[in-house]
Amino acid sequence: GHLIRYIRKAGLKFAICYEDQTVANMIKGGAIKKGEDVLHGKKTLQWVQENWFTDDAYLRVGQRPLMLVFGPMHFIREQWHGIAAGLHPPPLLYCLPHLSQKANADGIFGWPPVHGGKKIAPEAWRKYLRELYTRGRKGERVIAPVFPGFHDIYSQAGVHESYGFLDDGGGATFAETLDLAWQSESRLIQVATWNDYGEGTIIEPTTTFGYRYLEVLQKRVGGKRGEAFTFTSAHLRLPVKLYQLRKQNKGERQAVEILDRVSGLLFSSRCEEAAGL
């Protein structure tokens, strides 16, 4: 709720991704009984509808709220009908491409196609994306995926074996997947940064990559919107500058008041005024 309040303040939209595999773990851990899983799912989505689907900031396609499911990995087709019963309008259900038929989903969304702990060659992920967009041309709803690469820490951290490795190509992978997404017929594009730092899918600024992913994204968006797009790469650095100044001036009332004004200006997209302050 706290995050969503600031999403609204920034004039953005939000949508949720439901991890139905958590239900299997809840049964395993004794939190719910095996025969109560559909009822649990139904109550969860009813809560989501009452609190989020009806929110003006919730992302909709037409009049229907959009909901992603990372899977499905627990519920199957018939169960989804029971879970979504009574939701008006019913959400558009988007699932992983290889599992979407399990839920009779309305659409699919992509993911960095790593598997088996292998190094994924560019030819392999390009083929994956071509197949995804072919499904879109045949009538499926497709959320076009964009990713910078994939380099997880799971083996290093002793959690489990690595899912695999997808090279960032010095930023070229992100730029190419973004261009392919934009050229596709998909209405929606998703920068797939799930578990970002732990899986090397971050586009946020880092000491390793700097601002290059945000700059590529900004350039592509700006190019599509033409002269009406007034943001620059310097503007991308303002939030971190604001954060650093807040730390340096903690307890200094006059400085804090000025920085609060800066925050308000950034939320209003008045970047040059914010930079001046």
Give the tally of β-strands.
10
Globally, the shape reads globular
Helix content: 40-55%
**What proportion of the residues form beta strands (DSSP E)?**
5-15%
Major sheet: 7 strands, mixed
Pattern of helices and strands = HEHHEEHEEEHEEEHEHHHHHH
Please tally the helical runs, counting DSSP H or I stretches of 4 or more residues. 12
* Spans of at least 5 consecutive residues with low confidence: none
Structural key phrases:
seven-stranded mixed β-sheet, three-stranded mixed β-sheet, about 45% helix, 12 helices, single chain, alpha/beta, about 280 residues
Q: Please, could you describe this protein's structure?
A:
Helix 3 (37-53) crosses helix 4 (77-84) and helix 6 runs parallel beside helix 8 (212-225). This protein is globular. The chain has twelve helices and ten strands. The chain is an alpha/beta fold and 277 residues long. The mean pLDDT is 95. Strands 1, 2, 3, 4, 5, 7 and 10 form a seven-stranded mixed beta sheet that branches. A three-stranded mixed beta sheet has the order 6-9-8.
